[in-house]
Specification:
Elements lengths: L1 E6 L4 H12 L14 E2 L2 E2 L22 E8 L17 E8 L12 E2 L14 E5 L4 H12 L6 E6 L6 H7 L7 E4 L2 E4 L1 H11 L10 H24 L4 H4 L1 H10 L15 H21 L8 H10 L3 H4 L5 H12 L4
Helix pairs in contact: 2-4, 2-8, 5-8, 8-11
């Protein structure tokens, strides 16, 4: 039996997240409970989208309009289907055509340096994310902000790390690092903490799964990021290709854990956001300086890089490759 679904989302990624959620949620009795979670500001409304096979309901979100094809009920939804298993676990895509609105590229603010004498009007109710365009730590939070569709709610303030405005340390963030987030009359920092803060305090697509095993693995991978980055950065003083092999192999192994997608947790998550800016930078540096492809013998890592570069929320945050390589050569390798 087939039924038509009309859904409204921003992107193919959100559509996949919706399907993953629908197929792994158990119904109460004969109905799936109303889901009030937000998908990029769009709520799934009652009546519940799934009842039993002969009465599947339409999935309706607020706007803009996207058709999402035909679907096939290949097995059970509940006992009324006369199938032995309960729960929406075997909903299969028969045909799906997704028409998404194009990603609107944001007009980025100019970089503020030491010639900037006054900060933005602090604690005026505006949420601000202080970043540096070249900083991979800032790029993490910037990407999450974009993916959640928070461009209107969180304003970017770009800082020149080599020539910071004096007011940034004195009036905004005593640590004088980026990223930092001005929100609810306080300023907080540390990129991994800010990723979780956005997840917990702002609307938009979920970037952490409900599955306990995936949650636990997410924490393990997030904890490993500092070890991974330190291993690679310190290797620049020795034999990088030899000394970083185990670190890149660790990521290759991690990408084999879940088979429901190309990302670390199967579906795109905070974990991918945490690693993406650093892996992209290391890939450029290793190729340019040591003529080494970090994906050689690591097909999962290669596929992950290919997929991550399809996500507009991330690609807009990428710094000019040539300038990035030049900067890292000067800083870490002493090359002019």
């Amino acid at each position: 039996m087939k039924t038509k679904f009309d859904i409204k989302v921003y992107s193919v990624e959100e559509f996949k997240l919706f399907l993953d959620d629908a197929m792994n949620r158990k119904p109460r009795g004969s109905e799936v409970p109303r889901d009030e979670r937000l998908l990029s500001k769009f709520t799934i409304y009652s009546p519940p989208p799934f009842r039993h096979c002969s009465r599947l309901q339409t999935v309706c979100l607020s706007s803009p309009s996207i058709k999402a094809g035909d679907f096939e009920c290949s097995a059970s939804h509940n006992a009324r289907c006369k199938h032995p298993k309960a729960g929406i676990r075997n909903l299969e895509i028969d045909q799906a055509t997704i028409m998404t609105s194009p990603f609107v590229k944001e007009d980025l603010p100019p970089t503020l340096d030491s010639t900037s004498l006054e900060p933005p009007p602090l604690f005026d109710g505006t949420t601000r994310l202080y970043i540096a365009y070249i900083c991979p730590y800032a790029q993490r939070v910037w990407t999450a902000r974009n993916y959640k569709g928070l461009q209107d709610e969180i304003k970017l303030v770009a800082i020149d790390l080599g020539s910071k405005p004096t007011w940034y340390k004195e009036k905004v963030y005593l640590e004088s690092k980026v990223p930092s987030l001005e929100h609810n009359n306080k300023v907080i920092g540390e990129s991994l903490d800010l990723l979780k803060y956005l997840e917990d305090n702002f609307e938009g697509p979920k970037l952490l799964p409900n599955d306990p095993s995936k949650r636990q693995f997410a924490e393990e991978l997030l904890e490993y990021t500092d070890t991974f980055n330190k291993t690679v950065f310190t290797s620049f003083k020795g034999d990088p290709v030899k000394e970083t092999g185990s670190a890149f192999d660790y990521l290759e192994t991690a990408l084999n854990k879940f088979e429901d997608g190309p990302f670390f947790l199967g579906q795109f998550s905070l974990v991918d956001i945490a690693y993406a800016p650093f892996i992209a930078t290391f890939q450029l540096i290793f190729q340019d300086v040591w003529k080494y492809d970090i994906t050689a013998g690591r097909p999962k890592l290669g596929a992950w890089i290919e997929e991550i570069n399809k996500i507009d929320a991330y690609t807009q945050t990428k710094y000019d490759p040539a300038k990035l390589v030049e900067t890292y050569k000067k800083r870490f390798l002493g090359q002019q």
